[in-house]
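Lab notebook, bench 4. Continuing the backlog of folding jobs that were queued last week. Each job is logged with the same field layout so the records can be merged later without manual cleanup. Today's entry covers Cardiolipin synthase, a 470-residue chain. Filled in by technician R.K.

JOB TYPE: sequence-to-structure
TARGET: Cardiolipin synthase
LENGTH: 470
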Amino acid sequence: MRHWTILDCVLTFFRWALPICVTLHALRHKRNTSACAGWIGVCWVGPFVGTALYLMFGINRVHRRARKMIDHHSWEGRELLAKYRQVMDGHLAPLAKMLGRLTERPLMGGNSVKVLHDGDNAYPVMIEAINQAQTSIVLCSYIFRADRIGEMFAEALVEAHRRGVEVRVLVDGIGSGYFRCAIERRLRRDGVKCSRFMHSVWPWRMPFINLRNHRKILVVDGRLGFMGGLNIGEENMLRLRTKLPVADTHFQLRGPIVHQLSVAFAWDWSFTTGEELRGEPYLPEPVPVGDVPMRIVTSGPDADLEKIEYGMLQAITLAKTHVRLMTPYFLPDDRFSAALNLAALRGVVIDVVVPRSSNHAIIDYARDANLRPFLDAGCRVWMADPPFNHSKLMVVDDEWSFVGSTNLDVRSLRLNFEINLEIYDTGVARDLSAFMDSHRKNRLTHHDIDRTPYLIQIRNAALRLFLPYL
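JOB STATUS: finished
OUTPUT FIELD FOLLOWS
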């Protein structure tokens, strides 16, 4: 007969106590039923390892930390921006009202926007803006390479710092290098304040290791802003003819909307470093420059959870004639897919432009396994020729545009910190529609899918199972 020891009693206690605690916590805090059931199952099968994994990766400390920050920051300047508040009418008025309530940001009038395609056109304008900076520069980029282009930006930022401009640079802790971030070391060496978003080599010190800051923001003197899908690296300069050139779309902004863009950066910077960016250098009083209504929409696994996706879903629901989408990665969740397919079934023309080959073959394989339902519903899917286009664009009824950093995949819509811009302007919408239409070269058909070899179809279907992590 086996005698129980104190160690046996302790192990038995934790064998049952740990999964019970995890179960109670997951039931209380996990919104996604699949994730909740998965974590509970893992912890009951392997109580000790499962609980350790749940503590490191399953608890959204980002959301908890963000809620604490809400009561301590007043960057939004609601009173300051009230006089630029815009009210929309027409069939998209419910969209503007919904996003106003969802984001708690007003739709701002008095703005101008300029579309900049590819690094060839965007980088010179951005560097010139940095060179002309007088008070402040804030820059956030998912990828900031230490190559020829990165060095051009670094040199401009260092020179601005030396002439007394307040410079803050935020790069992602994974996208710009997990174990070694050369650009951070380069900037810090010359005195520029640069930080890596949510980075630590120790997993237990990371708030949530699977999360990334995918935003691209540049604001100069609080009055000139840039945002979109463009990272900083040689591959974005098409004239350099790199091994895998990347086309992209960026946007230059002026007007009160730049205040909202600055606030988005200030929030991320405070979240990362604890420093609050306030006052005239970063948030000067807005000055109207044009007449285009705009609003910044942010999303992430914090207080902004799924807000960009909700905006897209509402726009698709309200669409009457046409929805155009351009994205480098097309792996939407069931909710987004259903909205697109239902719109197509009720007669809305749905055009989805994706690259024939992206810079991630695995994502292409998973995407290909997911396309048949869209064709069945009547959506038109177009496979764009090289160079690989990294633009993230959405236009509804040639009236409303939604642009920024968000890909149409689960990672961008649920896990990443993203930033988009909604634009209520027919001129901008028609220009972006024409740009997307110029990439409609090869329409995907059922026959294209059917003739795919059986083993390739199985491979693609298997990879689709990893959709939330791609």
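OBSERVATION: The longest helix spans residues 6-29.
SIGNED: R.K.
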